[in-house]
Fold Glycosyl hydrolase family 39.
Amino acid sequence: MIALLAGGASWSVPAWSDEMVPAIEIDATGSGTPFRHSWEQAFGSDRADMALTESYLRNADRTREATGFRYVRFHGIFDDTMGIMAPDADGHMHYNFRKVDAVYDGLLAHHIRPLVELSFMPSAIGSDVLRRDGGLEPLVHWKADEQARPITDYSGGTLWYRANVTFPAHMADWNALIRAFVAHLEQRYGAEEVRQWPFEVWNEPDQATWVAQPKMATYFALYDNTARTIKAVDPALRVGGPATGAIHWVGDFVDHVMREHVPVDFVSTHIYANDPPDLLRLPKSPANTGNIVCDATRTARQAIDHAGHPDLPLYITEFGADWDIHNGSADRPWIAPWIVQTVHDCDGLAPIMSYWTFSDDFEEQGVVANELPGAYGLLTTHGIPKPAFNAFALLHRLGNRRLPAGSGDGDVLATRREDGVIAVVLWNRDADRARDAHLAFRGLASVDGATVIVIDRNHGTPAALFEAMGRPVSPTGPQAAALIAAARLPAPQPAADCTQATRCDVTLPPESLALLLVPTRTD
């Protein structure tokens, strides 16, 4: 038995035996195929207001350092809390982009660009009369025997912060806002910079964040006006939609914009692994892997192609294992191998797949009640890494050329990095049993000097220490520092099981993920 060390712990690894499971052959001789890191181009986050908080920006820095991500997407750049517009005494609209500037200034200072989601409806121009009038109605009698009194009612909104999700009362006011907004961005940041920001019209108009009826027709009207207005300001700006949940409307959207000659530069939609099958209605296909996220992404891609526009890129602007914030999925060990499986299965389907979300600074359902389990974030509000964060950090170390790995190319993903290192990620999604993986490298003289990093239930997670602390709702500074240290990604350790010339054995504990780095020594 050979001991594989990782983070100070050890696992027993059997020496190589021809009677064991056949080896997975990794061909290190060829150039491989392009392997774009689509999963780390962008990450999601909560509404624009949160980008002004210290913890949000700190976690953005941590995530960018670990993944190199370029774009962040969030709701509510037009939310009422941003204070961007209000009528004067004569009824004329005035724009105030100071908070918008603060949000975008902060992101750019941290070397992150916005993937601009144009939402939600400013109440001053929305079709909810009560909200348009500031929430005030004339004196009313709540009960027959009570004195009349004024009321303030924002019940027409959705999400915890009561986002206004109505159709504009007058489309001309919405178009004027879009025109002023885009022109202001180009004036402040320069046209060449803003041309690198994708503009996505709204968020999930098929869901509760759009109340106009009929949903599809009214959204298409909003999209048409928005896209044409943006292109009238600068034809080089990129705009797309429909930003729907569960890959809804993708084919209908492409058919519509082409039929009506509406500008479109990309198609966007969302998918979660626990979206109900009757909501998705995925067609049977021999290409499907059983991974809901990737099967749905493939279906969306095919819908665009079948509409006759394979040139249109598909952006998955939200994806995740679980849309239910209360399940704490990002905190649990199983999420790490799930993320890697999804990266493996979705390879080549979309140039951007934006995981929801990078930080627990998230208030769609209210202020998060606990540090762990928190929200969807890779990092808690105190910056404590979760297994999901460490999974993305390991994936970042893969190369940009994918190498053949066995006939089935199952629970292994092999790449070559620019420095020549063969980077191989392996995973085990079984919750009860360990799994042995045997690798044989063709084209290498030896695998001496290989290192390994393992994430499992005891490494790369704060869970054990958090339990020992008594699950503090809001950790103190010293507690948070200790949890951050406990959850840190383990350092690479010598892979003692890689001494068999060009072969390596790796034992994967239950619900685990391993990254094997092999220096190239060619024949």
About this structure: The chain has two domains: 24-31+403-518, 38-139+154-397. The first helix runs from residue 54 to 67.
